[in-house]
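SRPBCC family protein, pasting as requested.
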Amino acid sequence: MPAPGSETTRTVTVEAPSDEVWPWIVQLGQGRGGFYSYSWLEKPVGADIHNADRIAPEFQRLAEGDSIRMVKEDYWLRSPMTSMTVEKVDPGRTLVLRGHDGGTWTFHLEPIDDGTTRFVVRGRAPQQSLLGRIVRYLAYELPHFVMERGMMRGIKTRAERTGRTGDDPSPA
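Structure tokens follow.
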């Protein structure tokens, strides 16, 4: 998005190589690996998210144009906001999702050394009116910050656990 109306960038250092972090990112989504966040916050709104604690081989491939659901298919809120489209996949490095409004959600891995990765998540939203920015901040950005932080910590924990146990995170 060349001229976003707003942008957020969040990062966390993961004590695992990027090839142990990527499998958790590529399987994001409802009906896939989940979002590794706070299920107890998702359940009251009926999102029906189940967070995986293992790498699922069937969810390790994404292609441009694929859809990633944010909630179950028969969710009570029928809206284009309930899914995102895969805009770009650079395997092992970057996943970019695009929303119905043109906004993007980017997941990027930057290796620091052989056993450490910088995990960056960036959200970009299109230009909006002042009222639109206020509503977006209150209704979306605040809860999204909490959930996204939980997701990043969930991915970090899973990838670091894989490294400590020596389990192979790659699909068979």
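Note for the archive: The CA atoms of residues 67 and 85 lie 5 Å apart.
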